[in-house]
Amino acid sequence: MELVAVEPGLVLGPLLHARANVSVEIVRLLLTRAMPAVPRLGFTVVDVRDVAALHRLAMTTPAAAGNRYIAGGEPLWLGEIAAVVAREYGPRGYRVPTRPMPGRLLRAVALVDRRLRSGLPLLDVPALVSSAKAERELGWAPRPGKEAILAAAESLVRFDLVPSRG
Predict the structure, then answer these.
(1) Are strands 10-12 and 68-71 parallel, antiparallel or unpaired?
(2) Domains of the chain: which residue ranges?
(3) Of the candidates 102, 119, 101, which has an alpha carbon nearest to the alpha carbon of residue 110?
(4) Which of 42, 65, 72, 91 meets the CB 3.0–4.6 Å disulfide criterion with 2?
(5) Cα distance between the two ends of the chain
(6) 78-89 helix and 145-158 helix, angle to the nearest 10 degrees
(7) Residue spans of beta strands (DSSP E) within the chain
């Protein structure tokens, strides 16, 4: 038996069903303004379609056996993701938060909201992983993060997972 590991970053892009997964939940929280400000969290955004393509390449390339590949696009801070969503969806009536959330405030809120505690070790940590090996060895090429972000947002609107605006 041969094994190839594909390890994705923040997987965004179009949804197949009317259910937001954990990664797309971040975009949903932005569109619904469920967070008043944006904590400084770093991600490598990758489109779900590109993750699927990398899995296919890893499965069909004999030299990939026994290797591990990172499926990550460009590194982005959550504030940059919010700015992409705000530029596209602000004119459509969505009030997307773009103000930075001070780390001290996030730590204080995490004392009472345990869902936030798991993110504390990632605060102010840039996402510094590279998919260069997958690009070099398998010919994989991820699409721009902006495309994955907007495809996720559009799916959330299309499937009525966020309230309609305008």
Answers:
(1) unpaired
(2) 5-158
(3) 119
(4) 65
(5) 54
(6) 60
(7) 5-8, 10-12, 42-47, 68-71, 75-77
- The residue written with tokens 């070099």 in the block is 136
- Dmax over CA atoms of the chain, in Å, equals 54
In the chain, the amino acid numbered 96 is V
Using the predicted structure, report yes or no on whether residue 158 has a pLDDT greater than 80. Answer: yes
Q: 99 exposed, middle or buried (CB, 10 Å; 0-12, 13-18, 19+)? A: exposed
Question: What pLDDT does residue 19 have?
Answer: 84
The answer to whether 97 and 30 have CB atoms below 8 angstroms apart is: yes
Residues 124 and 103: beta-carbon distance below 8 Å: yes
* Pairing state between β 68-71 and 5-8: parallel
Q: Would you tell me which CATH number, out of the four given (3.40.50.720, 3.30.310.40, 3.20.20.70, 3.40.720.10), belongs to the domain 5-158?
A: 3.40.50.720
**pLDDT of the residue at 166:** 62
Q: Give the predicted TM-score (pTM) of the model.
A: 0.91
Distance in angstroms (rounded) separating the CA atoms of residues 55 and 8? 10
Q: For residue range 28-83, list pLDDT tens digits in order.
A: 999 999 888 999 999 999 999 999 999 999 999 999 999 999 999 889 999 999 99
